[in-house]
Amino acid sequence: MLKPVRIMVVKDYGNVHIDGTEYPLHKGVELEVPLWLAELLVSRGVANVVETPLSIEDIARVHFATVSARTPAELEPLPRNFYQEAKRFIKQLDEEIRREFNAALLEEKQKAIQYLLEIIDRRLTLIMQSIRSPTTIAEISSKLSQEESTLLEEIRDDVEKWKRTLTPRS
Q: What whole-number distance in Å separates Cα of residue 150 and Cα of residue 148?
C-alpha cells in the first residue's frame, strides 16, 4: 500500500499534508503518491491513476507462461506486485459490476479469477517440487514473488522440522 503510484488530479482539493509530505491536489497536476492515498483519492473522484493497471490480457499472459512451465527451472518470474495488482483488478471489476451490471465484465471477472487460481495452483505445485532439492530451491528462488518466497521458506522449514521428529537421534 506504500508503493508509489502516479495520479492525475481531476478536481481541486487543495494541499494535503501527510507524514511531512505536501501533496498539491490541484486540477491538472500529475504527481506520485502512495498507493493507499491514490485509492482514496480515486474513490472520492479527486484523481485518476495514470499508470496502466493490470489487465485481463496481462493475467492471461502470466497464466500461459505459468501453466506451460513443466519444471521449476522453466518457471518465469511474475511481474512486480502481481498478486496485489490482480486482486485490485478483480476488486475493480467487482465494483464496476455492482455500479452497473454488465455481463461482459462479469465474464471477464470470472475468467480473471479462474486464471489467477490456476496460476497459484501451478506455481504452488512447482514450489512444492522444489522443496525436495536444495539445488532446485536455489534455481527457483529468484523467480518467486515475495509471497511465494515466504511460503517456500515456511513450508521448507516445516518439512525439515517434521523430518527431524520422525528420524531417531543418535
A: 5
